[in-house]
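Weekly structure sync - notes
Attendees: PM, LS, DV (DV joined late)
Agenda: review two folding runs queued last week.

Item 1: First target. Sequence and structure tokens pasted below for the record.
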Amino acid sequence: MPHTSPFGTWASPITLDRLVENAVGLSFPMATGRHVYWTEARPEEGGRNALVRTAIVDGGRGKDFDIGSGKELGTEPEEVIPPGFSARSTVYEYGGLCAAVWPDPSNGDVVCFSNFSDQRVYKVVPGEAPVPITPPPPSPRAWRYAGPVFTRDGGHLIVVRERHGDPDVPSGVENDVVVLPTDGADVSSVLLSGRDFYSHLALSPDGRRLCWVTWDHPRMPWDGTELWEGELDIERGRVIDARRVAGGPSESVTQPKYAPDGTLHYVSDRTGWWNLYAVSPDGTEDRALAPMEAELGVPDFVVGTSSYALMRDGGVLATWRQSGLSYVGLLPRGAGTFHQLDTGLTYVSELRGAHDGSAAVAVVGSGSQPPSVVRFALGADSGSRPTIEVLRRSRDDVVDPGHLSTAEPIDFPVEGGNVAHALYYAPTNRDFRAPEGELPPLIVNVHGGPTSAAVPVLNYATQFWTSRGFALVDVNYGGSSGYGRAYRERLRGSWGIVDLHDCVAAARHLVSVGRADGRRLLIHGGSAGGYTALCAAAFSDAFAAAASYYGIADLVAFAEKTHKFESHYTDSLLGPWPEAADVYRSRSPVRHMEALRTPLIVFQGLEDAIVPPEQAEMMVAALRANGVPHAYVAYEGEQHGFRKAENVRRTAEAELYFYGRILGFSPADDLEPVEIV
């Protein structure tokens, strides 16, 4: 029989160590005909991003995959780059696709990747030592590269470049597109320049046409971008006869790709939804392939996102989001609608096709399955159902389902007659039950972005709380992606208002239906989510305590000092800077501390270039001056997000200890105290 114990005091099998032990973050899968590559963020290696691959073979390794008809295939993954190297780009600070593979039919694959420590591009043949093909930068990480694409013969690499410290550029940062010889010769050529940002480079199958996405301040890529195409003259290092294919100030175009016959595909939200389009090779026809009220695109915070794969027979395999869930479907050549596949997946990202169009790869998961790299193996034509082959799981030690809480999508009313969305996780632990009549404390989780979205996939960071007796709600407040452009634009001019109101509304809705204790409401979030948590502490009395991970405290300082990519982001969220300076001041939590009474714990990376540590330190100083109970935990060597195992553990430990002290309960864990002043 389950033990009776108050919510928050339950003993959980998801220990602090288990948060990071034998766990990796999976991203950017790529496929050739013979191998699948991906990057692994490894907390236990100091946050290093390993680049690994597996060979595709018949047969399996004896492990079942219980999503749909999946089965586990492939050899044991092998490392492509040795220890001491980390595959990670910092272009636009958030980085993105940092590697490319050229399948050499005679000598095996050739890989080029950006190395985190110096941001140089290296070439490596698996089994050999990496060799740099870009010169040393004038200062550490001053020259950066992302979104690489090999030319057809493998002799050159086309890549987005970012140069810091340029005295002739107002921001000190210049972005362009360059072509690099892969033999290491120091003779790069600038193919494209003059625009603020570039992304999504793609080459036609014959290697003669290059396409790219570009945009300028003050727009963000989900506001308005342009898709361009031109003839590539690789010998002279130039693009000629460039033309704009699609896009504009109020149309977000993304993810261009060429089909085997040369047809250019792309994703656009011109109808209010990111849908798939195709342009004929002669440019005379531009048509929607499968219109629907669903999102094939995602906000391009990083370079090289991908939501679909083009098959060699002309079909398309794609993923889209609808009502908070991910789906996968096939669009056979000539069909007008996607055939949705019954996979059991609720989370699908980074779906890319193999070089030869024979398969696709992605990172997928569900409420009971952690993120995994999978390969969609297609039959003779794209009208047949693919087989799902698991190549790597982010963790193999999934706890018993009796300790796991599954996401429940909920809708709830918010101000202005609107409806907002969230994922609710009930406290779940088969070994415990709460005393009769007790309601659980509720954690409101605020995602970052703020244009990102909460997704329903097994995440130990969530289960850590629910298995201890907390309820948790992941709020997709107005401004979140996945619900169409109109929903995204609810946040225009209203950041700090709509997001906060929707988070408070989610909490109060759950209290009203008897699923949370209104006296024990908590809120936490990172980055933009940290800003909303700080707003909750400063502008609302709904919460008993709050936690901010690298959150923005002062919008004025953020506008004056943040990095190039986001330096005009607040123009749409708040108003143009400095004309709307009064709005920035009025919505900055640190400037309204006189009425603050909400206890707060603040976490910060001391190398964060997106939200510098001064932001956290200003908030802590104001809390101290106002006599509000608070704690401050800062980490050397961490940037925007915590990657080291010891810091991931310490963050969860300190936050749980803080909540126990503030709410007056004793967690079952043996916790190292955090200083509360």
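Item 2: Second target, run right after the first with the same settings.
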Amino acid sequence: MRKIEIYDTTLRDGAQSEDISFSLEDKLRITERLDDLGVHFIEGGYPGSNPRDIDYFKKAAKLKLANAKLVAFGSTHRPKKKASKDETLKALLDAKTPVITIFGKTWDFHVREALKVPLKENLDIIFDSVAYLKKHADKVFFDAEHFFDGYRNNPDYALKCLEAAQDAGADCLVLCDTNGGCTPTLIKEIVRKMKKHCSAPLGIHVHNDSDCAVANTIVSVEEGVTQVQGTINGLGERCGNANLISIIPNLQVKLGLRCITDNQLAKLRDVSRFVTEIANLRHFKRQPYTGDSAFAHKAGMHVSAIRKRPETYEHIRPELVGNSQRILISDLAGRANILRKAEECGISLTNESTQLQDIITQLKELESQGFQFEGAEASFELLMKKALGLHKRFFDLIGFRVIIEKRKEGEEPLSEATIMVKVSGHVEHTAATGRGPVNALDNALRKALEKFYPTLRDVKLLDYKVRVLTAGKGTTARVRVLVESGDNDNRWGTVGVSENIIEASYQAIVDSVEYKLLKEER
């Protein structure tokens, strides 16, 4: 069976989406999830473009990845510079990744108008860049930028660009529909020709400006492409990149081409929703395979049929991709997902457990209030432990107060939090300042508890996101707060919901503290 390699560029190309800004911690968490999904290559960023990506590669190198190889992305060397002296190529090597991907111009229009160099010089740039990097990296992939447009305009020159990279030792020639305007018929025809001309493996990287990115990827694989590039949920420039959430099951389930394991495929929905939550976006209900509506049934005739034979109105079993069938009048979803989460957390829970229905009921009630547990795995683990009697109260809140004072225009407001808690009969009353009211409250709570639980000194609040849940209510809207915390070894997410942003933040912070303390007792 032919195996297809999945190359994820969510952290680089996906991060170029409008309204997307991944923090360093976001990128590290997503990296671990992509690795767990079984992705083969993770393009972490462009180390020559910004300090955040440089820091990412330093920290990502310390992650214990089981499946994926990290990839640094950049361009060919600049005109009139030798490859060995080029700052861009040096930055790629400094990232110390086993794989490097560089893009080069293959459309003669771009060579003349953007690079403003002779066509022959561009061929030399491609060859010299790939050859130089091959001396220092395990693998070098060449992204043939604007290849399909270039081939339509000047097929001989576009092919020479591929040959230059191939002759220099490129491990994969990635054909790019950078403008995203090609249709499947055109893509299929050109890929078929390149398969005959090129001895190196071929890859495909397409954008979605004509809403054909997934289809263009599928037909490319049918013509022999072995590396598929895309992003989770189709994030990317303009209209986005090819959506791996659709591509992976299409290849694996529909075409029988092995990409990842069946167990990894069952995590697809979790990964999709995790990235959406971390990106602080709304989940796309109608996303194929993983959306809430993908296997939801409302019409009476449909419901009657699927109760007898689900395949009457479902093209695959939803469990294959981690989703579940939903009957919109009486929602039956949730049991399989909860059991799998319990297993991941080391919690003993079976389909026969009396508490399972209690967890489902509580989960549905919380979700109706606006809670979402994708990206807040620690809060969900605490929810299950409370239902099973495995939770322990480490402190009781007596009360807290948060004060924000702005003394004059042009100066930052002062934030101070005072909190009183009871721990094993002892009352602790402390105060702390912070850079904002939430930071002050976080500092005050941990200051009150650290004398009793010293390990909390290792905990840091790494990230903080707010989502407005009730549109149209202005500043009285209900909000969801997602907090990411971490210590020297791990990171975890927690969630809180309230009309009061401080209360929602407090809920998430308390969950973070309790998760850490319960983890220490394991």
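Discussion on item 2: Residues 329-333 have pLDDT under 50 and may be disordered.
Action: LS to circulate a short write-up before next sync.
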